[in-house]
Design a protein that fits this description.
The chain has a seven-stranded mixed sheet, sandwiched between helices. Strands 10, 11, 12, 13, 14, 15 and 16 form a seven-stranded mixed sheet that branches. A two-stranded antiparallel ribbon has the order 2-3. The two termini are 28 Å apart. It is an alpha/beta fold and 341 residues long. It has twelve helices and 16 strands. 33% of the residues lie in helices and 23% in strands. α4 (83-93) runs antiparallel to α6. It folds into two domains: 3-199, Spore Coat Polysaccharide Biosynthesis Protein SpsA, Chain A (Alpha-Beta Complex), CATH 3.90.550.10; 207-336, 7,8-Dihydro-6-hydroxymethylpterin-pyrophosphokinase HPPK (Alpha-Beta Plaits, 2-Layer Sandwich). The chain has helices spanning 3-8, 39-47, 62-65, 83-93, 113-124, 149-157, 163-168, 180-183, 190-199, 219-233, 269-282, 317-329; strands at residues 11-16, 33-34, 37-38, 53-57, 72-73, 98-103, 128-132, 137-145, 172-176, 207-215, 235-239, 243-245, 256-265, 298-304, 307-308, 335-336. β2 and β3 (37-38) form a beta hairpin. The protein is elongated, with a radius of gyration of 23 Å.
């Protein structure tokens, strides 16, 4: 049995379905129909195979939830103390080392959710690995050590109820996922439900890349235009700080403005590389330009699927500084590699 599968069997999934649905006219969100079946069925379909066991946190309709074949837990502490009460109940119920917490209204969760969170938690030796969609942290999607149960009880009994506040008090790492916000899209209103229904299903990007961007010919305008194109045509997850750098090689030219972009795409490596060349051409870049010479725009894949594929990554600050900023910001575990064959 592969080691990563053994580790994932040390994890129990807790699906939070105990909310009151105040923004949904009191409906039990887990039982609301989406794409022909209840929301919780979409969630279970995404997570059940990722961990050894699964439990459901629910304070009503327990007879319906139990039909899915998993233990159903009512809150073991407090009355209407919010999602942390359900999380505490899960922590003290399970016999595994870790608890993967997900809400019942996120039908498009990543297929590698547990694996990625567990890898980050163990690599950084922390107590919580928190999912991040590239724009914001997802404070109801995380992996947690079950040993935190006593501290959570103390927090709740002190009168505190905020999930984010408690998580921020723990040793924590954030983990960015391909698929961006689409992977964690949820249902908070009838409008959200209608919008998801129109989509007809989950559409998640398959690949993740960090792309270096640079220009020393009208750099502000050309970089802004490149970012606008990429935002419109791909999934732009994050952007580094833009820095000014001295030219390399040919020094008799203007300074460059350089940065990096975290992008998710459905294109494979070769197709995405060709796509970037097309974007350069649309911004009047000629690929026959002299190496290190002036240019309107320069777009290069530096990291692909969390592997460094650019030989010059560590050699020049115009690449290493902005790319490293994104790696650190999104908690990416990047290894040395080479472009896919």
């Amino acid at each position: 049995m592969p080691n990563e599968i053994k580790k994932q069997r040390m994890v129990t999934t807790l699906v939070l379905a105990g909310g009151r649905g105040l923004r949904m006219q009191g409906w039990d969100k887990g039982l609301i129909s989406l794409w022909g079946k209840p929301l919780i069925e979409h969630v279970l379909g995404r997570v059940v195979q990722q961990t050894g066991t699964t439990v459901i946190s629910a304070n009503r309709n327990g007879d319906t939830y139990v039909r899915y074949g998993f233990p159903v837990l009512a809150d073991a502490i407090g009355q209407e103390w919010g999602p942390l009460a359900g999380i505490y109940s899960g922590l003290v119920f399970v016999s595994t080392d870790y608890l993967l917490v997900v809400p019942c209204d996120t039908p498009c969760l990543p297929a590698d959710l547990c694996q990625r969170l567990l890898e980050a938690l163990e690599a950084d030796d922390v107590d919580v690995a928190l999912a991040h969609d590239g724009s914001r942290a997802q404070f109801t999607v995380f992996l947690i050590r079950c040993s935190l149960a006593p501290g959570l009880r103390t927090y709740l009994e002190s009168g505190e109820r905020r999930v984010e506040s408690w998580l921020r008090q723990q040793r924590l790492v954030e983990v960015a996922f391909a698929g961006g916000a689409n992977a964690f899209i949820n249902v908070n209103s009838a409008e959200d439900l209608a919008a998801l229904e129109r989509k007809g299903g989950c559409k998640l990007s398959k690949f993740q890349a960090i792309v270096s961007v640079g220009s020393n010919i009208e750099p502000e305008r050309n970089i802004e235009q490149a970012i606008e194109i990429l935002r419109a045509e791909q999934e732009l997850v994050g952007q580094s700080t833009m820095i000014q750098t001295r030219p390399v090689g040919l020094t008799n030219q203007p300074d460059f403005i350089n940065g990096a972009l975290l992008i998710e795409t459905d294109l494979d490596y070769d197709a995405f590389n060709q796509y970037l060349k097309n974007v350069e051409a649309r911004l009047q870049r000629t690929r026959g330009d002299q190496t290190h010479g002036p240019r309107t725009i320069d777009l290069d894949i530096v990291v692909w699927q969390q592997r460094v594929v650019h030989d010059d990554f560590h050699l020049y600050e115009h690449t290493s500084v902005p790319v490293s900023e994104l790696i650190e910001r999104y908690g990416l575990k990047v290894a040395q590699g080479r472009p896919p064959a």
